[in-house]
Amino acid sequence: MHYEEDCIGRLAVPDDVLYGVHTLRALDNFPIGPQIVHPALIQALIMIKQAAAGVNQAAGTLSAPIAQAIDQACWQLRQHAHPEAFPIAAIQGGAGTSTNMNVNEVIAKLATQLSGVTIHPNDHVNQSQSTNDVYPTAGKMALLQLLPALLAAVAQLTQTLRQKAAATQTVLKVGRTQLQDAVPTTWGHSFNAYASMFTRDLHRLRQAAGGLKSVNLGATAIGTGVNASDYYRHHIVAAVSACANLPLQPAADLFDATQDVDVLVTFSAALKALAVNLNKFCNDLRLLGSGPQAGFNELRLPARQAGSSIMPGKVNPVIPEAVNQVCFAVIGQDVTVTMAAEAGQLELNAFEPVIFASLFTSMTQLTQAVGMLSTKCVAGLQVNAGACRAQVEHSAIAATVLVPYLGYERTMRLIKTALATDQAVPDLLAKQQLLPPATIAQIFSPASLTGQAPAAAAVNQ
């Protein structure tokens, strides 16, 4: 045990930990839930510290032995060594200062141990920096590094849906508007529509991620760059970009980039839009897969587990249900981001910790949920083609295509008869000899019903 001092006073620090007094204060001040700072944010901060040491050495403000010791410690930590050294809760006061100082302390102590040179967390590791520029920059870096996994999951879901569409191009189904029978369509149309929806999500996510590449590194406290050399301010973003292999660029207005977080709101909105689309898709899967006897029974979802502790043989749509719940959470987290963003005041938004915590949670949940939905549900979906075809033939609304042949009034009377007698419309047409059999067959062919082929010449008697 040894003692360290900060502006509050002295505090006993265990000898077997890499962090120091600032981390201990945070642990005591913020016992908020099980969620700690995301490892991707910690890794991004370590890369910033590593790059900053090199730039400060080049600027002549940090000696070579100290810069090299920091670099050596950062390399070790970038291999995910000592994860226990970063225990602080994700939600914290101080606009991220606790997290920044946690990283500064760990790097300083590890660098000291590795080199034998005394490294100070503020004077050396944090040189030319402020929490107000390194923390939001690290948060954006972490989001950019997490994004490819989410994009890959959505792209895989889209591809799976396109494959389903190709396999069901001519499989008829009843189209519905407002949960009422509308006009016939095909499962190919439906699966393609879902795929197009998620393709739009891919575009929206990529577009929103563009704003994350603009960072305020070099702004220090509020945008003036106080305590940072000119050399550092002009070189640090390029150095961090090279270190992290990310296309970062300095913000055009460092003051704006320090105090305003609307780019994070935009990115959160793209995540929310994906969640909304996933929710709608999963609602459709559950509805169309309902039954099997007393529901729609148009889709057969893969059976994943027993659905009841009391009803033998019952199987529930558990994968879409789980994804639905992820979507509810993501939409709620977007509300958190929105409220935290608008609550910022003057030259800094103090609520970035909860913004980034919410975004990291949303991205992780969505990535896992989309992958789960694609592999454990959509890939194994089966269309009940026979039931869908029977519904089309017995759906009186399918007779809408007869209006050009029989006129609106005669078609309406035919529909009423079909509904009253529970007869298929084509059968009723044949019995009443209203149209020649060849014409009936052509009108009610899948291609004609779904607008993929020209109908027979209208008679409109």
TrEMBL record:
PROSITE patterns: FUMARATE_LYASES (PS00163). It is an enzyme of class 4 (lyase). Residues 9-332 form the Fumarate lyase N-terminal domain. Keywords: Lyase. Residues 399-451 form the Fumarase C C-terminal domain. GO terms for molecular function: aspartate ammonia-lyase activity. Its EC number is 4.3.1.1. This is Aspartate ammonia-lyase. It comes from Lacticaseibacillus baoqingensis.
